[in-house]
Design goal:
Two copies of one chain form a homodimer. A ten-stranded mixed beta sheet of chain A has the order 3-2-4-7-1-8-12-11-9-10, sandwiched between helices. In chain A, strands 5-6 form a two-stranded antiparallel sheet. Chain A is α/β, with parallel strands linked by helices and 378 residues long. Chain A starts with a strand and ends with a strand. In chain A, 38% of the residues lie in helices and 19% in strands.
């Protein structure tokens, strides 16, 4: 597989009260088109990653809606898989090109979350969980707190280890003008932040965010960055049915498939954007993706290996979901934008020197959906 | 393009208060698997067509949810494009197979609508319209009533012409044990039914329905029915921006693309399932799909050409959305099931003798999305 990325852009992420989803996708899409030196009529299909437009905004039919706004009366659809909606939209776009039905397609990811009360948003997000979890009053921080406890018990992972993920990702975000939180945090600040779901504290959690991202994929060679693998796997929706709670099986299955498709090993990844909805999720991702042995990721992160300037792989140069922000449907698309920028060498102050192969890891719900992409510079 | 349909099934359509979406998709999927003589592990990806699970049920993450229920821990996602969600899910599945990434995939369509107040459902359905339409208090019957008026003015179409569509489709549904309305209606009964949005009356409108449908697509030859074309087009979301209101441009564009892909002309279609959300929509579809000249479809329908036993093409043998029912996300998938049954020769009392080529036509909103598939018997 070799699918060219012709252009890629995100809006600023944050609390964007004055901007509509339409406005956000226009900015992202037009910047991606400019970068690709393409006109709207070059686009033959539009794939939209979004989770909450229906439940929060009573806005369905996003595919046709955005296609009209962008002047593209072409095939268009919304793809949804909870917080993995963006990654699934990229996967759909990859299939569209590989199928031969379309030559050039646009992937949009968007979410507008901060116009609603956080309690309402949290309730809607639990639409990604099971009936039993909802009935029991579980929240996503609560579900990830259970996984954190299991990881702590089995591998001796500490609250400080998790806090280090936040420190690293806030540092990266401080170099990213598009990030929601552009301020660094200290270990002490994370450790002293209020408890959300013990052992997870406020600064262990990704925020509620508005934002959009756009990527143009094409069969034709436009520049030197390509998607060379795209894989998806699913697992049980609820935690109670899983074999093990110290990692995500869907991530292991999807990433193994992706490595095989790309013909590479995890050791060859220079830079990755991973789904750190909570700090424990980044620790688990490091292990499930094969970057570090099971139980050894926390130490590697604490030692600085995954931070800019470390021995690598360098993780979440954008700031990740944690500090760049997590506009749900946009996240999986934004991850592709960041890795594209890294491989193109246009990532600015957060550039990983000489990065040639990158990976994105997008997760839905508490791990029922996993989407992994691998990108390579020619 | 030649994608084999290995199995296809629907549940009974209707007010199924005792059944959950999970229960409905299991019945449809297991029947489709039985027909294909396949075990769940043969399925490599799952595509779910659904519109309202999020806004009406706070159930997102349907892809992973259903994949788990069916024992398929594979790639899974929900596809949404208002009332065209089912057709778009089939289009996605077609791309999945054509891409070479998957060999055998399952398409599910499902909607559970009757557990909610009709007013609430009607409001949620307007999520497919524009902000202006919603703010103006427009409903879908109202939007189609505008199109009906335009068609009446320009082509002399009458209320009786529209009523004849209902009479035909109720007759077909009376031969279909899975239909929501298994009773025939007379022209008089339709004409005397209460006005919903003048000139559309109650019996000009499709109902609110629960139901599910499943189709298994595969690269491997399993039997003699294949999808030979799959095309999608979009138009403006709102009516006010369209060039003409006596037909749907997206349908003309998508169907022309599909005929070209299949290498056939509209004259070769023996049987078709079209999106008759309102009776006027079937009249417009006959013209937009090229079955009859513009302005001449009403006469053809009234003369019985499109009714079982007519000279053809025979339209909506299932009873259509009008009488078989319209569980939104299931509709586009159910259309494939009906045409599959017709081409296999297993459509029972509603069989079109010798049917070799069939078409499905699925529309989103008031016509912003159109999906056309062509099926052929080897």
């Amino acid at each position: 597989m070799k699918i060219n990325i012709a252009g890629a852009a995100t809006t600023k992420f944050g609390e964007l009260w004055r901007r509509s989803p339409r406005d956000l996708i226009k900015e992202a899409a037009n910047n991606a088109l400019d970068q690709a030196k393409m006109k709207p009529f070059a686009v033959e299909a539009v794939f939209v990653g979004n989770m909450l437009s229906s439940s929060l905004g009573n806005q369905d039919h996003l595919g046709a809606f955005f296609a009209e706004e962008l002047g593209m009366p072409v095939a268009a659809m919304k793809i949804e898989g909870a917080c993995a909606s963006g990654g699934l939209a990229v996967h759909s776009a990859v299939m569209a090109i590989q199928s031969g039905l379309y030559e050039t397609v646009l992937v949009l990811g968007v979410e507008k979350m901060t116009d609603h009360k956080p309690e309402e948003v949290a309730q809607m997000l639990m639409g990604a969980g099971t009936d039993a979890e909802r009935e029991a009053g579980a929240t996503f921080p609560g579900l990830y707190a259970i996984m954190a406890r299991c990881h702590m018990q089995k591998y001796g992972t500490t609250e400080e280890d998790m806090a280090q993920v936040a420190v690293k990702n806030h540092y990266h975000a401080s170099l990213n003008s598009h990030a929601q939180f552009v301020f660094p945090v200290t270990l002490e600040k994370v450790m002293k932040s209020p408890k959300v779901a013990d052992p997870l504290k406020l600064l262990d959690c990704s925020p509620i965010t508005d934002g959009a991202a756009a990527v143009i994929l094409t069969k034709i060679k436009n520049n030197e960055v390509n998607i060379i693998a795209s894989a998806v796997a699913t697992d049980t929706l609820g935690l109670s049915e899983r074999e093990d709670l110290t990692g995500l099986k869907a991530v292991r299955v999807a990433s193994q498939k992706a490595y095989q498709m790309a013909g590479i090993s995890p050791k060859e990844i220079d830079v990755a954007e991973v789904h750190d909805c909570f700090t424990i999720a980044e620790i688990m991702a490091m292990e499930d993706l094969g970057f570090f042995e099971k139980g050894k990721a926390a130490r590697a992160i604490t030692s600085g290996k995954t931070k800019l300037g470390g021995s690598g792989p360098i993780i979440n140069t954008s700031g990740g979901l944690k500090a760049c922000g997590h506009p749900v449907g946009a996240t999986g698309v934004k991850q592709i934008v960041e890795i594209y920028n890294q491989l193109k060498g246009i990532a600015g102050r957060k550039q990983v020197e000489g990065a040639k192969i990158g990976l994105t890891h997008n997760v839905g719900g508490s791990g029922a959906t996993a989407v992994v992409h691998i990108l390579k510079k020619d």
